[in-house]
User: Fold these one by one.
Assistant:
Number 1:
Amino acid sequence: MTAQNQTPMMEQYNEIKQQYKDAILFFRLGDFYEMFNEDALEASKVLEITLTSRNKNADNPTPMCGVPHHSANQYLKKLVSAGYKVAICEQLEDPKLTKGMVKRGVTRVVTPGTIVEDGAISQKENNFLAAIKVMNQAFYFTYIDISTGEIYLTETNTWEQLISEIQTIKPSELVLEKTFNPVKINEITSILNITISEHDDDQDSEYQWELNDPSAGEKEVLNLIFGYINFVQNQRLDYFKPVERYVIQDFLQMNYFAKNQLELTKSLRTQRKQGSLLWFIDKTKTAMGGRLLHQWIDKPLFDKHQLLERHDKVEQLMSHYFERMELMPRLRDVYDLERLIAKLSMNTANARDVDQLRFSLQQLPAINHLIQLINQESMTQNKLVFDELNEFDELLQIIDSVLVEDPPISITEGKLIKDHYNDQLDKYRDALQNGEQWLAELQQTERERTGLKTLKVGFNKVFGYYIELSRLQAQDLNDTRYHRKQTLTNSERYFTDELKEIETTILNAQEKSKQLEYELFANLRNEILKYISELQSLAKKIAELDVLCSFANISEAEGYVRAEITDNPYDYYLEESRHPVVEFLIGAASFVPNNLKITNTENILLLTGPNMSGKSTYMRQIAFAVILNQIGCFVPARVARLPLVDKIFTRIGSSDDISQGQSTFMVEMMETNFALRQATSRSLLLFDELGRGTATYDGIALAQGILYYIANVVKATTIFSTHYHELTSLQDSITGLKNIHVGSEEQNDELVFLHQIFDGPADKSYGIHVARLAGLPESLIQQSQTILTEMETNSKRLFNKDHLSEQISLFNENTIDIVQEKNSEIINQIKAVDIDQLTPVEALILLSQIKKDLK
């Protein structure tokens, strides 16, 4: 359609669409949101709805599709989940009161990071919108949950740490300046499924956040994100909490690889919550508690004082079983206050939401009573006490005086406000009540006048009030008072002057009462907003109490113990440690617990044993014990003593990074490099089968070099799992290294895993036995055994002549082998040399002589 032939409505649509080219425009027409042109083509495919067109008879009909206004949320969620932005264009005037074109405008833009609609975001997970600002060689990073009002802010000087933080937070949308480095943008999008939004805002945001002494970089990044929010939301933001600034080093740090391989929040196999540590320990009763627990797992504490406070509270809750059992159902009855507050502030809360707030506040006296019972004993023993909750008696009274019990969802159809709250509303209701009585009396009177006992007075939203007769009765009707209103298949509908007068009275009262009820409800919402900060404080306390109760429940049910926190970074002691998830899945009777002991003189454990024997499980359960301890939970063991760990690095399992063109081995080496460069003496390294992605001798050399580097440079507590049995001899040459192995037995040529950790090295890897367990053909197994025996014989000839540590630390293995075969006398000469007594010149002379002799 040419611009000259456009209808006024399409002109209005195109003008608005020009302002939001990067979004699908939901254009309100009556009870539908309509989409046109390219928007319609895209949306119809994603939403799987019918594509039609305007002006079907034109040469170029306009593609269009639409979704009902009342069910738009489900379509919004689908589009946003697919990565689209949606601009909501509403009718800004009442069509009934407007002549000509109704004024329309975009009220907000829904994006992955700003969607707040019910059902569109997970209850127990945050939905973060994030922003990055680069300034003075520092990266400023902030992220906000629009649905809860949480704002977090940090900074770092390294790109790697920023990437790790982004991966931890997993924002659904990231706001960047248009000048942001495109190479770095590609790096972000290659590792994260995330929507990138560009925005430049040189002006200060209209919203003034709360933050003490912000730096220039902090101001800039907050301006950037709030400028974007102002642009897309176009709504009040005064429900946002003060900015929570944090330092990354104040928490136990784990990069994305560690969290992924440890399966903290999702299973490696299914990429879902089920099967993860979070899935198992999440016994929270509220959505707020669930989100807080997720945050705690993402950022365990590295502060002993705060940690001891959490442990004390968990211990108190465990010692008050009956109070805790009463507390849990009370917590379950508290709705999601954080998101209720956001909906109230954005004027999207309905009467049911306010009723949920009322119901939640009604639980507070009982919760406080239980807290008081717990605190009474605590105070007599000089223990930490729980904060009591503000009970909001005044707010509860306000809501109770206005809102009916069990109100409807709609706030425009009336029946929200209690009788006797507003005099004018009572008058309208009286008129409506009398009108109903008048209608009943009119129906009875007309039946008597006409003699038609089935005559009925009814109501239709389109046609109003009517008197209905059957077709047969209508044929015999001879009453000039009756005027035909509507003809149906089996009946006729009429009206009389008397009915018309009653209708006018009722409908006026009905319309005015609905409007008044809406205004009174809006006033109630505004009154609740006066309590925003206090309600947010309440939500935080409820969430924390919920998580601590969850810790107490899981600790008691599973027999977890409180770990003693030691200041010695090399003091780990776990007796009968278990993997919480595996134990639950296979049953406590089938799971074999194990011990761990790390000391100042034995801080590197070299773990050997067959595949499938439980080495990875053992390593993960050690990490879980550390993490559970540092989020404030008790740990799965009979006795536990642990230090505070600053960082955990893992390499468990293998993976390619196809998007970056990197093989399994390259990814392994990059992750290892990152760990070795970032780890400290307070860190925990968990390395599983490093070096297996290359040739055997390369792998052995690399594994040994890594172990030497950890022992001499990094000095971190390490569990190093390997199948390279040649490395077990390093116990004699690497200070702090101790051999341990997973036990197994051969019974009638069958391998039986004991899943028990013992001191010393395993005698062999049992790879062929595992292959037999997997069901490989027996002839293949026998041939493999023959080949293995031959290879082991050759390998022993090489490694027995000289210690592997000496070969790798001095020369290439192949060179040594050649020298041994050609001239054993030269080798003996080299062994006899006292290197410490050689000057550099003498060493060069000796090397030159050896070179001549070899020729």
Note: The chain has 29 helices and 27 strands.
Number 2:
Amino acid sequence: MNGLAQRKKKEKRFLACCVAPALIGFCLFILYPAFQVFRMSLYKWSGGTGKKTFIGINNFVTLFTSDKFWLAFVNTLFLMVFVTIVTMALSLFFAAIISRGKLKEANLYRIVLFFPNVLSIVVIGIIFKNLFNPLTGIVNSFLSAMGKANLPNWLGESKYVLWVIALAMIWQAVGYYMVMYIAGMDGVSAELYEVSELEGANKIQEFFKITLPLIWPTVRTTLVFFILSTMNMSFQFVTVMTNGEPQGHSEVLLSYVNKQAFSNANFGYAMSVSVVVFLFSFILSLIAQALTARKDS
């Protein structure tokens, strides 16, 4: 018994030694900075070695009464909802065609659709910025050749700018999630499809009755992941393509935080926005999990 007890103690010590570095790193680089963000959101602070003045929840009061904050919030919500829905739908559509379509060029299509994910977001942002350039872009050149007058300034008009950013984000992400769904679909037993074909089911019925339910755990995981990653991607695309112009109509929450902290030297206020971003992302992930849980099996 003593030998068994000593062996269990050694196993526990070994496991503790394995877990300790990751736990320490998590506390130092995740928990502590997060705590500091929450704490500094209660101060008026210009950053660096500037004086910190405790002002309680005044930063949050200013935040929730700011039109610029709400515009950035609405823009972020639009991108998170629209880009997520369209990207997931297109990824599933292309994955189903390539996986179940028995195409000879399937590998070529995988490479072509996945290629945008190989490029950096900065490169993709520059590509789309040049494509939609009002003077030299291919899009307006094509519209002009088709005889259209009064060509739009895609990135300079509030009614177009978010749609262009959304298009760039969708183009960048579709291939990545398509490959993940193809991997899931390839794991579905071919016998299930053979039985469904004998019973007269068409391709659409097979997709919704067999394919989608069986890969739903993958879809659910990628859905939550993409909703949260859209927050970061939107900041990068906005920074490269518009920098929040025109007049803040393409501003998103993280670009708003960045400008408040580094352009306006208002770190305390920027931290309060960061707190709201964290809570918003957390609540949104819970909602997504709750809405998709009923289909999980």
Note: The chain has a mean pLDDT of 86.
Number 3:
Amino acid sequence: MTYSVQLYTVRDAIEGDLPGTIRRLAEIGFTQVEPYQFAERVEEFARAFADYGINAPTGHAPLLSSDPHQVFSAAQQLGIGTVIDPYLPAEFWQDAQSIQDTASRLNALAKQGAEYGVRVGYHNHDWEISSKIEETTALEYFASLLDPELVLELDAYWAAVGGEDPAAMLDRLGRRVVAIHIKDGPLTLDTKAQVPAGQGKMDVWGVLAAAANLEVGVVEFDDYDGDIFEGVAASLHYLQAGKPAAEKVG
């Protein structure tokens, strides 16, 4: 399992200086990133990745509301093996029929992606967890409708904010989850209160241990009340150092 960083975390820097931002992340120690809306700037990303030795095993793109051919072609060019739809608003997760429709659309997109050698996945927020369908979370109901090749990227922080134990969810979702968003904080909706991994209330190591099929852990901040590059550096260094000795007891 390797560590990556979601480029939405440094979105302001990306907007001002994409190659310079990739360079700074490489200097911090990242060798992998997770770009967002990469089809719109594919050539810039390709040059920056080549210049600074960066790979992108996963990427976020609004597959359900964009041209899938453009997205999958860009993913091919950038070496992105898994394209993850990052967001559907809460209203899509309140009833079984809406979720069934979303699952059907993503199953069809996964078949298109396979023609490009690209997997398709979905990433959650808190509302897919807090909403309950047939006595389970909307996300788990959704997962039960997906074709086997479709994958999930569990945002463990938002799973906790949504009211579930993310480690227990990972046990239930099993091998469907291939990536995790790693963030920390007070487990509230206040994104400005998010902190580097290991400095908040998340059981980061418990979550990582519970993921049976994890390929990549993706550092992310939705927002941060500090220098964002210092924040992602602190998260990466915490993860690379391994589970603290005090947490290994017992």
Note: The mean pLDDT is 96.
